[in-house]
Amino acid sequence: MTTQIPPDNSITFLGTAGARFMVTKQLTASGGMWLNLEDTQILIDPGPGCIVQSTKRKLRAEKLSAIILTHRHLDHSADVNIMVEAMSQGGFRPHGWFYAPSDALESEPVIYSYLKKYLEGIEVLKEGKSYSTGNVAFSTPIRHIHPVETYGLLFNAAGHKFAYITDTRYFDGLQRYAGSELIIMNVVLPEPKAELDHLSISDAERLIKELKPKVAILTQYGMHVWKARPWEIAERLTQKTGIMVRAAHDGMKFELAQLDSYE
Fold it and tell me: What's the pTM value of the predicted model, to 2 decimals?
């Protein structure tokens, strides 16, 4: 009798660099996140080095069902084309979907025209819409405040609900992510800056207290956050909020089953 191995239902952080200087200096890797949920594999925000980091970690692009792009900035989109090429095995096995905001597909598209025929389809992300790919359902509850069209992601998979709060400044609409057991958020700044549409450490603290997830994971660090030691920031936030806060590191794998150990 063959024993079926259950899916690991995990999130792998291919890199944790956020903002231009962390990415261009590669002080930490960049490359997005790889989700393995209910036997469906999804890549989010394939930034610079995604093909290197995913191959290094023996993640097979041809197993992907979809690539999701939260917004068109280079640190999130630079490896879109090579990952589509890899997902479709150079076009010899066309498959997979590409999800992106409309401005990532218009006057300066992030994906080359010849690669589009390697995909099963392209779907435009819009505020308040729901989608499904493979065995996974996700939604884009609200447009973020950022210089380009940007959406965070809310997933329902493997009996868990979790959110990815990508680049944005803090605003009340982020309450749409309430009810998530896990919140992953990009934290670029030590303190809020009026001229920059990014979350800060104090914004992260406020969101964790308001959204009350079981676990919060910080990632996509800006230079000053990195110098302040994200792991120490996470420890302080855990003490201040009473909620488990973790600092992602390159290659970190978080299994959703871990959420069951937190109240």
Answer: 0.96
